[in-house]
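User: I'm writing a short report section on ligand binding and want a predicted complex to refer to. Could you take this sequence and coenzyme A and write out the structure as tokens? A short remark afterwards would be nice.
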Amino acid sequence: MYSRIAGTGRCLPERVVTNADLEHVVDTTDEWIRSRTGIERRHIAADGQTTADLAEGAARAAMAAAGVTAADIDFIVVGTTTPDYVFPNVGCIVQDRLGAHGCPAFSVEAACSGFIYALSIADRFIASGGARCALVIGAETLSRMTDWSDRTTCVLFGDGAGAVVLKPAEEPGILSCHLGADGAYRDLLYHPYGVSRQQRPGETAGPYIHMKGNEVFKVAVKTLETIVDETLAANHLERSAIDWLIPHQANIRIIQATARRLDMPLEKVVLTLQDHGNTSAASVPMALDVAVRDGRVQRGQLLLLEAFGGGFTWGSSLIRF
Ligand code: COA
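Assistant: Sure. The structure tokens for the complex follow:
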């Protein structure tokens, strides 16, 4: 038994903040942001709009595309690092709103790799007969933990949610998922405030995303090259077999490096970072949904999804759509 993607969806906040808007917030320019990152604009949640709101919107869109109702859903997993509450988890909130009561619902905290981790878990449940209709969501409101006075980070991030419905199939479907992590790099990209850990005397780091961008960049490029090679080797595939690369949308230069490793022109890479910025766990499912809905991604094509983020965590998934 395999799992296959039966439908995709996304939900973005209405408010769009352009690079030109950010020129009035911090000492930056549209030219710097575009040339260093590829980002042109991002969506930012309205006051009171939460990760669960966006997750619910993406879930409803994916369910409509898959032709399933709440009664069909028997498994909900959400990748997020910006939950509404410590608990209940975002999956439980979405489950209640959809009226899909009783099925397991939980969140996975793996930063930007959260959706790939969640997809991998749901795939294994379906493949082993433990679930028959899974909702897999990546949802974030990163704007809530962004320091809007720090030009080195605030220009990068955005809010949004993407979702897929996974169902059993006799043919793959999801061919393989590959996950990894290395906690030794935790100081390069982190948010210092949790529930359990208290600030130590003298610590000044505020409750925001802290990042050594340059160093993250180098490890991201190397790690993504390795995982792409590992995914192809595990499936005995040549690089030319991939129809679409659907990468985590952090930086155009990181994406270009991965595309080069695959010997792929950028025309075969789904890019949404110009419109969405880096939305962490939401970026891959939103990019997938964009390319499905605009007709680029077709049934039967081979897709390579990949992500890298805080932890560090990383992951990939090879999918016959
Ligand atoms: N506008 C204008 N100048 C800026 C700026 C901004 N928004 N942000 C930083 N700068 C300045 C820096 O202060 C620095 O100035 P200096 O040379 O006078 O010190 C200069 O630009 C270069 O900064 P640097 O950090 O070396 O730039 P970079 O080329 O590494 O680009 C990132 C910065 C963040 C875009 C890039 O490192 C990156 O994308 N890293 C990976 C991030 C990532 O993927 N994170 C998430 C993983 S999920």
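A remark for your report: The CA atoms of residues 138 and 282 lie 4 Å apart. The mean pLDDT is 97.
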